[in-house]
Design brief:
With 260 residues, the protein is mainly β. It has no helices and 13 strands. The chain has strands at 3-5, 23-50, 53-79, 85-102, 105-111, 115-127, 135-153, 160-179, 182-186, 189-210, 216-233, 238-245, 249-259. Strands 1, 2, 3, 4, 5, 6, 7, 8, 9, 10, 11, 12 and 13 form a 13-stranded antiparallel beta sheet that branches. The protein is elongated, with a radius of gyration of 22 Å.
Length: 260
């Protein structure tokens, strides 16, 4: 299959606004990855005998491929002290597809059962939110994903069957987020609207194992993606979160945000 490299950024699903001392936030959301720009390296080696000596040659050809997927995710953040530093864990499950070009068509490798995603990170508010000024934060995270690519479908639809690839991705991500929270009266209570935007840089280390032959390939790719979203809380503890990203990934996430 070759070496798979790609960009699959973790959703922030949160603004730069500080939580407050001993506050806990949780998000439960659905994410849809419409498109990921990936690369696939096909490698081969050969040998030739010249005057009694064996010379080995290796070739590597890269091709553009496309990844996509969807799943359910959860994230829990806590700020134990009043210093703007928060910690979080993230996890969930989902499906994943890879489209590999073959001539004018694309063959597809896909999951039959959901894969696993688990990780965590830290977030620090560089500039706290005030009534007159926006907030600015930096985010560092590490996430491990594991998918079994068990299904194959040819681009012309004439050939389908079972295959056996184990795909694991270890992602390190850094993000910078800018946000501005607005507070207004809604009915007898108070609501908040917290739009945000930013940029994330993603480094993925990808491993692909063919379970039938035992072959192993790996690859690393660094990419970036601008993102934008908002949190809307019409109630003190419950609300809606929505986020999208562009460029190296085209994705959208929507879910519930809960504050304690």
């Amino acid at each position: 299959m070759g070496i798979i490299s790609g960009v699959n950024g973790t959703e922030l699903v949160g603004s730069a606004t500080q939580l407050g001392k001993q506050k806990v936030h949780a998000e439960i959301y659905y994410r849809h990855m419409a498109r990921q720009d990936l690369s696939l390296a096909f490698g081969g080696s050969g040998s030739v005998n010249v005057n009694g000596s064996t010379l080995t040659s290796t070739s590597l050809t890269e091709a553009d491929i496309e990844g996509s997927g969807e799943g359910m995710m959860g994230k829990v953040s806590v700020q134990p002290f009043d210093n703007g530093l928060r910690y979080y864990i993230v996890g969930g499950f989902g499906t994943y597809d890879l489209k590999v070009p073959s001539g004018s068509l694309s063959n597809t490798f896909s999951t039959d059962n959901p894969g696993m995603v688990i990780g965590g990170g830290i977030k620090y508010t560089l500039v706290p939110y005030t009534i007159v000024s926006p907030a600015l934060s930096v985010d560092l995270s590490a996430v491990h994903s594991r998918y079994a690519l068990t299904k194959f479908r040819s681009g012309d639809g004439k050939l389908t069957g079972d295959t056996g690839y184990l795909l694991t991705i270890f992602e390190i991500q850094a993000a910078l987020t800018l946000s501005k929270k607005f507070i207004f009266k809604l009915g007898d209570g108070r609501a908040t609207f917290d739009p945000y935007l930013g940029m994330k840089i993603i480094r993925n280390r990808v491993n692909a194992d063919n379970l039938s032959t035992g072959s192993h390939q790996s690859g690393t790719k660094v990419g970036w993606a601008p993102f934008f979203g908002f949190k809307f809380k019409p109630f003190p503890l419950e609300g809606l979160v929505l986020e999208g990203s562009l460029f190296n990934e085209t994705s959208a996430s929507v879910g519930l945000t809960l504050g304690f």
